[in-house]
Specification:
- The complex is a heterodimer.
- By secondary structure, chain A is mostly beta strands.
- Chain A contains no helices and nine strands.
- In chain A, 38% of the residues are buried.
- The chains are: A mainly beta, B mainly beta.
Protein backbone atom coordinates (compact mmCIF):
# COMPACT_ATOMS: atom_id res chain seq x y z
CA UNK A 1 0.00 0.00 0.00
CA UNK A 2 1.34 3.39 -0.94
CA UNK A 3 1.60 5.40 2.25
CA UNK A 4 1.03 9.11 2.08
CA UNK A 5 2.58 11.87 4.14
CA UNK A 6 1.03 15.30 4.52
CA UNK A 7 1.58 18.26 6.83
CA UNK A 8 -0.60 17.94 9.89
CA UNK A 9 -1.89 21.47 9.72
CA UNK A 10 -1.76 24.69 7.72
CA UNK A 11 -3.09 28.17 8.27
CA UNK A 12 -4.03 30.64 5.58
CA UNK A 13 -5.97 33.85 5.16
CA UNK A 14 -9.04 34.47 3.11
CA UNK A 15 -8.36 35.16 -0.52
CA UNK A 16 -4.97 33.48 -0.58
CA UNK A 17 -3.98 30.48 -2.64
CA UNK A 18 -3.26 27.39 -0.58
CA UNK A 19 -0.99 24.56 -1.68
CA UNK A 20 -0.99 21.29 0.23
CA UNK A 21 1.70 18.83 -0.72
CA UNK A 22 1.47 15.09 -0.25
CA UNK A 23 4.34 12.61 -0.50
CA UNK A 24 3.73 9.12 -1.84
CA UNK A 25 7.14 7.66 -2.58
CA UNK A 26 5.88 4.12 -3.11
CA UNK A 27 3.17 4.91 -5.62
CA UNK A 28 2.63 2.13 -8.13
CA UNK A 29 2.35 2.51 -11.88
CA UNK A 30 -1.41 2.05 -11.97
CA UNK A 31 -2.21 4.16 -8.90
CA UNK A 32 -4.19 7.37 -9.04
CA UNK A 33 -3.92 10.29 -6.64
CA UNK A 34 -7.17 11.42 -5.08
CA UNK A 35 -7.95 14.22 -2.67
CA UNK A 36 -10.89 14.40 -0.30
CA UNK A 37 -12.20 17.16 1.94
CA UNK A 38 -13.85 16.51 5.28
CA UNK A 39 -15.75 18.92 7.48
CA UNK A 40 -16.37 18.08 11.15
CA UNK A 41 -19.03 15.41 11.65
CA UNK A 42 -19.46 14.86 7.93
CA UNK A 43 -18.28 12.22 5.52
CA UNK A 44 -15.38 12.99 3.18
CA UNK A 45 -16.16 14.69 -0.09
CA UNK A 46 -14.27 14.11 -3.33
CA UNK A 47 -12.28 17.09 -4.55
CA UNK A 48 -10.05 16.02 -7.40
CA UNK A 49 -8.18 13.09 -8.87
CA UNK A 50 -5.25 12.77 -11.23
CA UNK A 51 -2.62 10.47 -12.63
CA UNK A 52 0.09 12.80 -13.88
CA UNK A 53 0.85 16.41 -14.81
CA UNK A 54 -1.96 18.79 -13.98
CA UNK A 55 -5.66 18.41 -13.43
CA UNK A 56 -8.05 21.28 -12.84
CA UNK A 57 -11.71 21.43 -11.97
CA UNK A 58 -14.05 24.09 -10.67
CA UNK A 59 -12.73 23.96 -7.12
CA UNK A 60 -9.07 22.96 -7.24
CA UNK A 61 -6.00 22.05 -9.22
CA UNK A 62 -3.78 19.05 -8.75
CA UNK A 63 -0.15 19.15 -9.74
CA UNK A 64 1.75 15.89 -10.15
CA UNK A 65 5.44 15.88 -11.13
CA UNK A 66 6.86 13.41 -13.61
CA UNK A 67 8.11 10.99 -10.96
CA UNK A 68 4.66 11.01 -9.29
CA UNK A 69 6.24 10.65 -5.86
CA UNK A 70 4.37 13.67 -4.64
CA UNK A 71 1.37 15.78 -5.51
CA UNK A 72 0.15 19.24 -4.64
CA UNK A 73 -3.43 20.25 -4.14
CA UNK A 74 -3.95 23.90 -4.96
CA UNK A 75 -6.97 25.79 -3.67
CA UNK A 76 -7.32 29.21 -5.28
CA UNK A 77 -8.56 32.13 -3.19
CA UNK A 78 -9.67 30.22 -0.12
CA UNK A 79 -12.57 31.35 2.04
CA UNK A 80 -13.49 30.63 5.64
CA UNK A 81 -15.68 27.77 4.46
CA UNK A 82 -12.63 25.96 3.12
CA UNK A 83 -11.53 25.25 6.68
CA UNK A 84 -11.51 21.46 6.77
CA UNK A 85 -9.30 18.39 6.80
CA UNK A 86 -7.86 17.46 3.43
CA UNK A 87 -6.85 13.88 2.72
CA UNK A 88 -4.52 12.67 0.02
CA UNK A 89 -5.08 9.09 -1.09
CA UNK A 90 -3.29 6.88 -3.52
CA UNK A 91 -5.84 4.61 -5.08
CA UNK A 92 -5.26 1.55 -7.21
CA UNK A 93 -7.55 0.43 -9.97
CA UNK A 94 -7.98 -3.13 -8.83
CA UNK A 95 -11.04 -2.28 -6.82
CA UNK A 96 -9.85 -3.22 -3.36
CA UNK A 97 -11.01 -0.89 -0.65
CA UNK A 98 -7.91 -1.77 1.30
CA UNK A 99 -6.14 0.56 -1.06
CA UNK A 100 -8.30 3.40 0.17
CA UNK A 101 -6.06 4.15 3.08
CA UNK A 102 -6.62 7.49 4.70
CA UNK A 103 -3.54 9.11 6.14
CA UNK A 104 -3.58 11.68 8.88
CA UNK A 105 -4.81 14.44 6.61
CA UNK A 106 -4.04 18.15 6.72
CA UNK A 107 -6.12 20.45 8.86
CA UNK A 108 -6.46 23.66 6.91
CA UNK A 109 -7.59 26.67 8.89
CA UNK A 110 -8.57 29.76 6.94
CA UNK A 111 -8.39 32.92 8.98
CA UNK A 112 -10.29 36.15 8.30
CA UNK B 1 -24.91 13.00 -8.83
CA UNK B 2 -24.70 9.78 -6.92
CA UNK B 3 -25.49 10.04 -3.23
CA UNK B 4 -24.88 7.76 -0.32
CA UNK B 5 -27.10 8.31 2.68
CA UNK B 6 -26.80 7.10 6.25
CA UNK B 7 -29.35 6.83 9.01
CA UNK B 8 -29.45 7.76 11.79
CA UNK B 9 -27.07 10.69 11.73
CA UNK B 10 -26.62 10.40 15.45
CA UNK B 11 -27.68 7.97 18.13
CA UNK B 12 -27.26 7.69 21.87
CA UNK B 13 -27.69 4.34 23.54
CA UNK B 14 -27.09 2.62 26.84
CA UNK B 15 -24.20 0.28 27.34
CA UNK B 16 -25.09 -3.29 26.43
CA UNK B 17 -27.67 -2.44 23.80
CA UNK B 18 -27.35 -2.92 20.06
CA UNK B 19 -27.51 -0.17 17.46
CA UNK B 20 -28.17 -0.49 13.75
CA UNK B 21 -26.88 2.02 11.19
CA UNK B 22 -28.16 2.00 7.63
CA UNK B 23 -26.27 2.98 4.51
CA UNK B 24 -28.12 3.46 1.26
CA UNK B 25 -27.01 4.24 -2.24
CA UNK B 26 -29.77 6.51 -3.49
CA UNK B 27 -29.40 6.50 -7.25
CA UNK B 28 -27.05 3.69 -8.10
CA UNK B 29 -26.60 0.05 -7.26
CA UNK B 30 -23.70 -0.90 -5.06
CA UNK B 31 -22.56 -4.49 -4.89
CA UNK B 32 -19.89 -3.37 -2.50
CA UNK B 33 -20.04 -0.85 0.31
CA UNK B 34 -17.43 0.07 2.86
CA UNK B 35 -17.66 0.91 6.54
CA UNK B 36 -15.21 3.22 8.28
CA UNK B 37 -14.81 4.34 11.86
CA UNK B 38 -13.37 7.67 12.87
CA UNK B 39 -12.44 8.69 16.40
CA UNK B 40 -12.12 12.38 17.32
CA UNK B 41 -9.17 14.11 15.73
CA UNK B 42 -8.19 10.93 13.93
CA UNK B 43 -8.38 9.70 10.37
CA UNK B 44 -10.83 7.24 8.89
CA UNK B 45 -10.10 3.60 9.48
CA UNK B 46 -11.59 0.97 7.20
CA UNK B 47 -13.51 -1.55 9.26
CA UNK B 48 -15.01 -3.86 6.69
CA UNK B 49 -16.15 -4.36 3.14
CA UNK B 50 -19.80 -5.19 2.74
CA UNK B 51 -20.62 -7.50 -0.16
CA UNK B 52 -24.14 -7.89 -1.49
CA UNK B 53 -25.35 -11.42 -1.05
CA UNK B 54 -22.29 -12.69 0.76
CA UNK B 55 -20.34 -12.27 3.95
CA UNK B 56 -18.56 -9.07 4.76
CA UNK B 57 -14.79 -8.91 4.78
CA UNK B 58 -13.39 -7.48 8.00
CA UNK B 59 -10.12 -5.70 8.49
CA UNK B 60 -7.62 -7.03 10.97
CA UNK B 61 -8.56 -6.22 14.53
CA UNK B 62 -12.25 -5.63 13.83
CA UNK B 63 -14.51 -8.09 15.64
CA UNK B 64 -17.01 -9.51 13.16
CA UNK B 65 -19.29 -10.74 15.94
CA UNK B 66 -19.48 -7.29 17.41
CA UNK B 67 -19.90 -5.34 14.21
CA UNK B 68 -22.49 -7.23 12.20
CA UNK B 69 -22.78 -6.23 8.57
CA UNK B 70 -25.67 -7.16 6.32
CA UNK B 71 -25.80 -6.21 2.66
CA UNK B 72 -29.25 -7.49 1.81
CA UNK B 73 -29.83 -5.54 -1.39
CA UNK B 74 -27.92 -3.60 -4.00
CA UNK B 75 -28.80 -0.32 -2.33
CA UNK B 76 -28.64 -1.09 1.39
CA UNK B 77 -25.97 -2.16 3.83
CA UNK B 78 -26.44 -2.16 7.58
CA UNK B 79 -23.91 -2.09 10.39
CA UNK B 80 -25.10 -3.33 13.77
CA UNK B 81 -22.97 -2.58 16.79
CA UNK B 82 -23.89 -5.35 19.22
CA UNK B 83 -23.64 -5.03 22.98
CA UNK B 84 -22.27 -1.55 22.60
CA UNK B 85 -19.83 -0.16 25.15
CA UNK B 86 -18.57 3.37 25.68
CA UNK B 87 -15.38 2.59 23.78
CA UNK B 88 -17.53 1.93 20.69
CA UNK B 89 -18.55 5.57 20.69
CA UNK B 90 -17.31 6.91 17.39
CA UNK B 91 -18.25 8.37 14.03
CA UNK B 92 -19.20 5.63 11.59
CA UNK B 93 -19.07 6.37 7.88
CA UNK B 94 -20.07 4.25 4.92
CA UNK B 95 -19.09 4.63 1.30
CA UNK B 96 -19.90 3.19 -2.09
CA UNK B 97 -19.06 3.81 -5.70
CA UNK B 98 -16.13 3.29 -7.96
CA UNK B 99 -12.61 4.58 -8.02
CA UNK B 100 -9.69 4.68 -10.34
CA UNK B 101 -9.61 6.36 -13.68
CA UNK B 102 -13.33 6.69 -14.24
CA UNK B 103 -14.83 6.50 -10.84
CA UNK B 104 -15.54 8.32 -7.65
CA UNK B 105 -16.16 6.95 -4.21
CA UNK B 106 -19.05 8.59 -2.41
CA UNK B 107 -19.28 8.81 1.34
CA UNK B 108 -22.32 8.99 3.53
CA UNK B 109 -22.94 11.80 5.98
CA UNK B 110 -21.73 9.67 8.84
CA UNK B 111 -23.43 8.42 12.01
CA UNK B 112 -22.33 9.62 15.43
CA UNK B 113 -22.72 6.88 18.04
CA UNK B 114 -22.51 7.72 21.71
CA UNK B 115 -22.71 4.87 24.18
CA UNK B 116 -23.45 5.87 27.74
Amino acid sequence: LAKTTQPISMDSYEGQEVNITCSHNNIATNDYITWYQQFPSQGPRFIIQGYKTKVTNEVASLFIPADRKSSTLSLPRVSLSDTAVYYCLVVGTSGSARQLTFGSGTQLTVLP
Amino acid sequence: GAVVSQHPSWVICKSGTSVKIECRSLDFQATTMFWYRQFPKQSLMLMATSNEGSKATYEQGVEKDKFLINHASLTLSTLTVTSAHPEDSSFYICSAGQWGADGELFFGEGSRLTVL
